[in-house]
Amino acid sequence: MEKEQTEQQPNFQLKADMEGNYLIDKEYKPKKQVGIFYAPSGGSVHKVARLLKQKLADFTPDLFVLSEVIPSTMLEYRTLVLVCSTLGRNTWEMEQKDPWSSFLPRMQRLRLQGRKVAIVGLGDHVSYPNNFVDGMGILADIVEKLGGRLIGETETRDYVFNDSRALRGEKFIGLPLDEDYEADKTEERINRWLKNILPELSD
What is the DSSP code string of 160-172? Predict the structure, then answer.
């Protein structure tokens, strides 16, 4: 089995403001092109994250599972690809086992200015049609608050659902996937999505 990247301290200095938020040195520039961060390990999210790494091979992306990395590692990359699981009717504001719930408070100490962020969210449009890929929307709100620039919006016409926090107008803010009921569409959806964001990754 492929060994994922493990936790390492990035090679830069962090400064803290009066509220304890970490601010990156203005002189520091991300040195690496693409970092893929996902949770949980194993199962559908892991499968999708590895597929993304394979399809982005030309950009030599690094792949990280959240349980083995510190949030400041994100600052090493110009583009972040974040892969999260379905949350159904729960959210990260509630107590649950999803690793993102413990990672996000520490991630919010960072500043993501100058970084592009693409989000992939796994959802279940049959069991949770009123909360389809809500987690992707919650994560997008945090990324924008931290100064990251979201890329990779997706048209809704290929999806059946009632409502979602991941909607911005008539589009999803990232790529929704349903490995429970539409696994046969996953690779095609990823290919189409990557085709749209490749120009952004090449800048």
Answer: --S--TTEETTEE
